[in-house]
Amino acid sequence: MKRLVIGVLAHVDSGKTTLSEGMLYCCGAIRKLGRVDHKNAFLDNYELERERGITIFSKQAVINYGDTEITLLDTPGHVDFSTEMERTLQVLDYAVLVISGSDGVQSHTRTLWKLLAHYNIPVFIFVNKMDIAGSDRQVLMDELKSKLSEQCCFFDDDDKSEQFYEDIALGSEELMQEFLDKGVVPEDQIVSSIKKREIIPCCFGCALKLQGVEKFLELLDRYTIAQDDKSEFAAKIFKISEDDQGNRLTFMKITGGSLRARTMLSHQDKWTEKINHIRIYNGAKFSQTAEAFQGMVCAVTGLTQSYPGEGLGAEADSESSMLEPVLTYMAVINDDTDINTALKAFRRLEDEDPALHIIWNEQLREIHVQVMGEIQLEILRSVLKQRFSMDADFVHGGIAYKETIASPVEGVGHYEPLRHYAEVHLLLEPGEQGSGLQFFSDCREDDLDKNWQRLIMTHLREKTHLGVLTGSPATDIKITLKAGRAHLKHTEGGDFRQATYRAVRQGLRSAESILLEPWYNFILEIPSEYIGRAMADLTRMECEFTPHQINPDNTAVITGNAPVASIRDYQTEITGYTKGKGKLMCSLRGYARCHNEEEVIEKINYNCDSDTDNSCDSIFCSHGAGFVVKWDHVPEYMHIASVLKTQENEQPEPRTQKTQTAVNEYRRQSDQDKELMDIFEKTYGKVNQEKKKNAFRTKKDKELTDVSYRGKPLPEGPEYLLVDGYNIIFSWDELKKEAAVNLDLARSMLINIMSNYQGIKQCEVIVVFDAYKVKGASREIERFHNINVVYTKEAETADMYIEKVTHQLSHQHRVRVATSDGLEQIIILGNGAFRISSAELYDEVRLMQKTIDDFIKFNTK
Fold it and tell me: For 448-512, where are the E strands, in sequence order?
């Protein structure tokens, strides 16, 4: 027996639940045929659904017909509950799209069609209410082909004429070739083509009177195929709810293997929990089973952290929803329920329904909700009353705005109160429309350890980043981690959280921000005599629309796009001036630039600089205390060079500018060395100020406008570079790897590299290696080509030798020392020399090698 999961979808009031009821009755799953208007439909088992006569929550029923076991999923038809329907799509094998014969293809029908195409779900169409006068099958078929797909074909088992096969053959070239060769198309090929959406079978009937329902079931049994068997366990979670006893239910489809009760389930590294029971629901009732197999839809108890869209086992997570809420309201609790208790209730509902967004304003202690429409708001009010005994109202209905940026910008965040340290550099770039926030890392591990990088990426993803215009969520931005810095002793995990948040906000504050608002696609149908009024209204509301079309029944149709803020209440006006004859159909298009940006910003009156929970400023340290640096002055204080300027200046400078290059290099290093100098002075006393002027560039708080190098001229003698050999070897990955096998080879490789380096830089290079543990060793100095190699004597470390030499040389020469040893760096600075980290030396070596390669390439042409 083949198992299928089939969803029933439709525009509201098309007869979707009535068709589901008819299918259940014809299969013998229910003995009495219920009706929506009689409030006794089998699948509308919630009191709210029976009161309103609409489907609010997706429900399942299991039916058997022929050789097929069908799990039928009845989905909401109202646009306010579209996200509930969309989650169900992700577990369907086939979909049944119900269309009202009296209304034809409506706006929400087109939205459903786009979603079905997006998820690549094969479709069967059932045109309902064909008993109503004026419903013409051929007219409706033409409408289906023009508004949905040319692949729509009328299926009737009693009519297998040449015309039927000719319509089938239009689905693809393979079908056409088969038809031309044989005059018919084999049934197995038709089944395969339906699965690939090359053919869309269409049936006509009246579900209320069971006309065409039996034939439609035969069609589903005959022209469908089950998924291939998979041995490895896989499942997709699509719904979270609670039963009457308060047990949390996780609904999932088993897409591979099987699932037994009491099994441990996990989702990536986020959670691992054991399921208690497996339930198979049929309407409001359920039966427990010990094992669920591939193709079955079940609900499990015991999971507390699961979430709709998660994939278990071999199943991947679902992509983000195409639909999202566009209206925002503030919740007002009318009874004595504590605000924190109310927030927990809202959070539980948010877990069950991803279309419900809950925003907690800690400063004002207010709960804000974002929903698809006002019907969803009424349902939310009723659910709160029934499940949590909470009386709530919703006021100040507004639009859910978003923000993005117009051009790339660098965001810098620095967090350095006493005994804390973190700096983060991010590159913020405009993303594609509808892409949301995307996060990437392009930072070298030599600059920032991988663990810190992963922590920064976690902090980027965990927070809803707010824009600076209205405090609305940021979207459609590509954020890339470009650089960062930690302190070996003082950095803690929370430091990078602060630095990351501040980097995002500083980047948004520095960028040109754009306010976005939701837009609808609309179809307006009105009597032709009201065209002038309608077009004037649409122009006033700043809508974009095409020239109107006049139908044979003298109605005008106008299609276009409109801001949600302008058009959401327009249906009331249409009903008034057309005396009930006009109809407006809207579907969410997405977010686009706000049509009245300045007006909205002024009305919301958000001050980003006063938002202490989302600060744009950074914290630096001076004289043992932290101080705040405003967002626009942060680039003057940051400890890492600007990533944007680095990208612009990647090309090597001519050797004729060597002196200026050295000055720029020393200027960058001085910012990084300030903390080390403070430590040295506290330990060993003040350094001569004249010497200090040459070594450091100071910043005057909030007054620095000229960042040029100040100090007495650099000495004209040769520049010296002292290299702590073993420190560098064990800092560079390729040398460290070789040293693990052959230390002599790694040492030779470093010496050769530094020899090439000297040939390009034309400075005096001294490479120092430790020999202090070698018994009886005396100091050896070798001349290798153009550099000096020093092996220290017994009881003398490389650090000790370098300290002595820097003290002697720094009076008359420019001296740099390449090491990542923190203590050695302090002593070096006290001697008046400059330090260069192993990572920075590595960058210089790579640049040197590129220069050599370019020279060789040029001279071998």
Answer: 477-486
Q: What is the 3-state secondary structure (H, E, C) of 544-599?
A: EECCCEECCCCEEEEEEEEEHHHHCCHHHHHHHHCCCCCEEEEEEEEEEECCCHHH
Per-block mean pLDDT, blocks of 10 residues, the chain (861 long): 88 83 86 73 66 68 87 76 76 91 82 85 92 84 87 77 82 84 84 90 89 89 88 89 85 91 86 90 86 91 87 82 69 84 87 77 75 77 84 79 93 92 94 90 89 92 91 93 90 90 95 92 88 90 87 84 86 82 79 91 90 91 87 91 68 44 47 53 51 39 36 61 89 88 88 87 88 63 87 79 81 82 65 79 85 73 56
CA–CA distances in Å: residue 17 to residues 2, 58, 224, 285, 364: 24, 11, 22, 18, 44
Strand segments, DSSP code E, in 36-144 are: 59-65, 68-74, 94-100, 123-128
pTM, rounded to two decimals: 0.56
Handedness of CA 127, 133, 139, 143 (dihedral sign): negative
Structure tokens at 742: 């052959």
Burial class (CB in 10 A: 0-12, 13-18, 19+), 76: buried
Three-state secondary-structure class, residue 289: strand
In three-state form (DSSP H/G/I as H, E/B as E, the rest C), the secondary structure along 788-835 is EEEECCCCCCHHHHHHHHHHHHCCCCCEEEECCCHHHHHHHHHCCCEE
Beta bridge partner(s), residue 788: 766, 783
Q: Report which of 179, 618, 214, 181 is spatially closest to residue 416, judged by C-alpha positions.
A: 618
Confirm if 83 and 354 have CB atoms less than 8 A apart: yes
C-alpha 163/C-alpha 521 separation (Å) is 37
| Helix or strand run (H / E) with residue 626 | strand 625-629
Give the residue from 765, 806, 809 showing the smallest Cα distance to 787: 765
Strand partners, 61: 72
Say if CB 449 and CB 681 are below 8 A apart.
no
- Residue 114's identity, in one-letter code, is K
DSSP strand pairing (152-154 vs 68-74) = unpaired
Return the closest-CA partner of residue 155 out of 147, 146, 165.
Answer: 165
Other CB atoms closer than 10 Å to residue 430's CB: what's the count?
18
Q: Indicate the helix (H) or strand (E) that contains 175.
A: helix 173-182
Give, in order, the Cα–Cα distances in Å from 552 to each of 445, 479, 529, 549, 557: 70, 53, 14, 10, 11
Q: What is the C-alpha to C-alpha distance for residues 236 and 257, in angstroms, rounded to an integer?
A: 13
Helix (H, G, I), strand (E, B) or coil at 374: helix
C-alpha 722/C-alpha 761 separation (Å) is 14
Sheet with 618-622, side-by-side order of all strands: 437-441, 477-486, 422-430, 409-415, 618-622, 625-629
What distances in angstroms separate CA 283 from CA 20, 69, 753, one per listed residue? 11, 16, 75
Confirm if 418 and 490 have CB atoms less than 8 A apart: no
**How far is it, in rounded angstroms, from Cα 484 to Cα 393?**
47
Q: Which of 63, 59, 24, 28 is nearest to 45 (CA)?
A: 59
- Integer Cα distance of 24 and 218 in angstroms: 13
How does strand 437-441 pair with strand 123-128?
A: unpaired
510 token code pair: 């520095």
- Could you tell me the CA-to-CA distances from 558 to 145, 343, 548, 549, 674 in Å, in that order? 20, 43, 5, 7, 68
Structure tokens belonging to residue 770: 């430790």
**φ, ψ dihedrals at 246, nearest 5°:** 85, 10
- Residue 546 CB neighbour total at 10 angstroms: 10
Q: What are phi and psi of 435, to 5 degrees?
A: -80, -15
Q: Could you tell me whether strands 437-441 and 555-563 are parallel, antiparallel, or unpaired per DSSP bridges?
A: unpaired
Residue 722 neighbours by CB under 8 Å, 6+ apart: 766, 768, 802, 805, 806, 815, 816, 817, 818
Taking the C-alpha atoms of residue 197 and residue 213, their distance in angstroms, rounded to an integer, is 22
